[in-house]
Amino acid sequence: MFKMEADGPRGLYFEEFEIGQTMRSRGRTITEADLVQFAALTGDYNPMHTDAEYSKDSFMGARVAHGMLSLSYAIGQAYQLGILERTVMGFRGLDMKFSNPVYIGDTIHAELKVTEAKEARRLGGGLVTLDLRIVKQDGKIAQKGSMSLLMMSQP
Question: Which of 5, 70, 85, 99 is deepest in the core (most CB within 10 A)?
Fold first, then answer.
C-alpha cells in the first residue's frame, strides 16, 4: 500500500483513497499482560478486566479486555498497514459499537473500508471516512463503526 520516497516510505495521500477500497491488518493475540498494562496506563482497574475470581461469576464468564484496549490495538493495526505513514494529518472522529467481548487468548485483526472522501483544501488535504471492524479469530465482530481522518493532499 505505501510508496517509497527518497526519505522513506509514505502512506496514501487523500487523492489515492478510493471509495470501496478494503484493507485487512495482521492479527494480534490479547494477553494477560496487555490487560494489566492497559489498566496501569489508564487507571481502569474495573474487576471485569483485572480480577479472575470476580469475573468468573460475571455475565462475561471470564476477564475481558478493555473495549478501548481492543480499539487502540485496531488503530495501531491500521497504522501498520502503511497507508497512514507520514500522510495522516489528524484523527477527526470515531463512532463505534461494542458487540462481543475480547478475552485473554483471542486474536483480533482490523478490517477497513473506505466509505467517504471529502476534499478539505483549506486544511491541506481531505477527510477520509473508514468503516472499521475489529474481528476475532472465530469471525465474530468485537467492535464496528467508523473513523474519520484528515489526510494530506499530494504536493
Answer: 70
pLDDT digits (tens, 9 = 90+) for 48-61: 999 999 999 999 99
Q: What three-state secondary structure class fits 45?
A: coil
Rounded Cα distance between 125 and 87, Å, is: 9
Confidence at residue 6, expressed as pLDDT on a 0 to 100 scale: 59
Strand partners, 147: 94, 130
What is the largest distance, in Å, between two alpha-carbon atoms of the chain?
57
Dump pLDDT digits (tens) for 103-133. Answer: 999 999 999 999 999 999 999 999 999 999 9
**Spacing of C-alpha 111 from chain mean position:** 9
Residues of the chain with pLDDT under 50: none
Q: Give CA–CA dist 116/140, Å, rounded.
A: 25
Q: Which three cell numbers stand for residue 114?
A: 473506505
The answer to whether 2 and 11 are in contact (CB under 8 A) is: yes
Q: What is the pTM of this model?
A: 0.91
Beta bridge partners of 126: 119, 151
